[in-house]
């Protein structure tokens, strides 16, 4: 019996004549140069806490093997430098936290924060989160989804690159177990409006704007938004 072919990941798709396919993605890959502290954290912790990109292409890929146990799964998309990730994961030792982040220096920053917090229940992945949600996570497998301050892609012509779209809402809802929570936050008013419109139209989700989630630490990124005069909008939706 032939093994099914793993669908090509973003940046790995080719046209019929062998050229790399131009793709609309919700992120851009920035520089990868480490500071000395980041390099030290990477050397000390990446083997244990970072899932290599190529691992997802291997037959039989299993998150349970990478976590070393079976536990309720929390997924974070865009963990940045790990300020929220480390604090929230350390407070939830009975949960596994799968954090998606494509910026390698941010992952390295996250590693030393996890070590300082004693949060051994996090695994970081640099593979496209949308592809991973579709191909690596089963339906109803996620206990909670966090999407804090996704790239707003401020220019109107770039809005198609925003993560929170109707297609992604449908996919994300299918991965949440019934009763599971999707928490979001943004400091861009028009993106908040888009989130409310898109998520409100997804029939398997119910929720809306809520008070700021007290458990979420105020990060440097959030403080910059507030200092710039932008309003922080928190949203929470439940899978019906």
Automatic annotation (TrEMBL):
Pathway: tRNA modification; N(7)-methylguanine-tRNA biosynthesis. S-adenosyl-L-methionine binds at residues 76, 101, 128, 151. It holds the Pfam family Methyltransf_4. GO terms for molecular function: tRNA (guanine(46)-N7)-methyltransferase activity. Its EC number is 2.1.1.33. The keyword Secreted does not apply. Coiled coil: none annotated. Substrate binds at residues 155, 187, 219-222. Gene3D superfamilies: Vaccinia Virus protein VP39. Keywords: Methyltransferase, S-adenosyl-L-methionine, Transferase, tRNA processing. It catalyses: guanosine(46) in tRNA + S-adenosyl-L-methionine = N(7)-methylguanosine(46) in tRNA + S-adenosyl-L-homocysteine. PANTHER family: 3-DEOXY-D-MANNO-OCTULOSONIC-ACID TRANSFERASE/TRNA GUANINE-N 7 - -METHYLTRANSFERASE (PTHR23417), PENTACOTRIPEPTIDE-REPEAT REGION OF PRORP DOMAIN-CONTAINING PROTEIN (PTHR23417:SF14). Belongs to the class I-like SAM-binding methyltransferase superfamily. TrmB family. Catalyzes the formation of N(7)-methylguanine at position 46 (m7G46) in tRNA. HAMAP family: tRNA_methyltr_TrmB. This is tRNA (guanine-N(7)-)-methyltransferase.
């Amino acid at each position: 019996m032939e093994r099914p072919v793993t669908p090509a990941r973003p940046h790995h798709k080719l046209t019929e004549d062998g050229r790399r396919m131009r793709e609309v993605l919700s992120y851009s890959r920035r520089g990868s140069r480490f500071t000395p502290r980041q390099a030290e954290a990477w050397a000390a912790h990446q083997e244990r806490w970072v899932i290599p990109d190529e691992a997802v292409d291997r037959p039989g890929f299993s998150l349970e093997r990478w976590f070393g146990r079976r536990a309720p799964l929390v997924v974070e998309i865009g963990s940045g430098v790990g300020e929220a990730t480390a604090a929230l994961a350390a407070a939830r030792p009975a949960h596994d936290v799968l954090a998606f982040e494509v910026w390698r220096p941010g992952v390295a920053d996250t590693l030393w924060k996890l070590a300082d917090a004693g949060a051994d229940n996090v695994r970081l992945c640099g593979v496209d989160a949308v592809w991973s949600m579709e191909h690596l996570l089963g339906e109803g497998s996620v206990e909670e989804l966090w999407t804090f301050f996704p790239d707003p892609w401020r220019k109107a012509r770039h809005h198609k690159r925003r993560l929170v779209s109707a297609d992604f809402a449908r996919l994300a809802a299918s991965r949440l177990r019934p009763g599971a929570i999707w928490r979001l936050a943004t400091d861009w008013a028009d993106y908040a409006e888009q989130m409310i419109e898109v998520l409100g139209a997804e029939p398997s989700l119910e929720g809306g704007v809520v008070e700021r989630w007290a458990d979420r630490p105020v990060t440097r990124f959030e403080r910059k938004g507030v200092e710039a005069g932008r309003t922080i909008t928190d949203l929470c939706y439940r899978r019906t």
